[in-house]
Amino acid sequence: xxEKLKAFLVPKLSTPxxxxxxxxxxxxxxxxxxxxxxxxxxxxSMEPTFHDGSFNFxxxxxxxxxxxKRGDVVAIRLAGEKVFLLKRVIAVAGDTVAIKNGxxxxxxxxxxxxxxxxxxxxxxxxxxxxVGNIYVIGDNRSMPMEYHDFGQVSLERVVxxxxx
Amino acid sequence: MTKKxxxxxxxxxxxxxxxxxxxxxxxxxxxxxxxxxxxxxxxDGPEGNLAxxxxxxxxxxxxxxxxxFESEYYHLTGSFSSREISGYCFEGRSRMKSLxxxxxxxxxxxPQKDTALVEATVRLTGKTKxxxxxxxxxxxxxxxxxxxxxxxxxxxxxxxxxxx
Lengths: 164, 164
Fold this sequence. Notes:
The structure holds 2 protein chains of 2 kinds. Chain A is α+β, with helices and mostly antiparallel strands. Chain A has 2 helices and 11 strands. A 7-stranded antiparallel β-sheet of chain A has the order 1-2-11-3-4-9-10. By secondary structure, chain B is of the alpha+beta class. Chain B has one domain (25-159): Nuclear Transport Factor 2, Chain: A, CATH 3.10.450.50. Helices cover 38% and strands 43% of the residues of chain B. The longest helix of chain B is centred in the N-terminal third of the chain and has 21 residues, at 2-22. Classes of the chains: A alpha+beta, B alpha+beta.
């Protein structure tokens, strides 16, 4: 038993050992770059749902077979895949989006947003979401509207969704 | 004999490192330029006026005279001289208590010998003198041209990923 434990903890540097290490390294690289990518959240635009400094994974294949729906939180890529924007989908292609005194209206109907926390006085004139796009916004709408990045984005930029 | 081999191997590695470090490829030259520019803009704490002027003048040296900017987000579009860029750098930095600029996901192409087209994600973080947090992330496309042995920005465009 002791020898087995020793062999496990301090393995011999043999060819099968190096093959196993290489296999684990390749599998880890593929898994963490194509299936679940770890990331830290930097910024407060998704408070209170996602906190600044917290850790999560992006599930890359989340939208492989179906596009994002209203209410989903998605990761949006910029120039590459080291930095993402994390935003909530509030409207999909064909929808008309408007915000009046902080209240969201989709296709002229008010929408309940239980994930919001805090006052919001934003006003956004109605606009239609184009085909192949979604409209995204952060959950933290207590900050002034001009300091908050939101808007229409191409579906091609959606790389996945946070795991939790 | 073994000792001689180890010394030879170390010498060979040192030579390789020397070639890699002192004779960088064009791609590495451009990457280094971005890193140096980010470092010239960043600051960790309060600075005196003279130091700020020096830093701003140093930052302006990364730009061709004139350099074209295209940014709907900052309402900054047009061609700016080195003097104007230095003024903007000074003004922007003097409003901040701390400022950090970082570039991610640099994709570099060379359509001509002395021209580089770069796509990147830029992240600007810091604190204003009033104590407000600043965190901005943008995708940019830039053109750099090599003149007098240095790569200089001739055009910078902020890509509008989210269209309000």
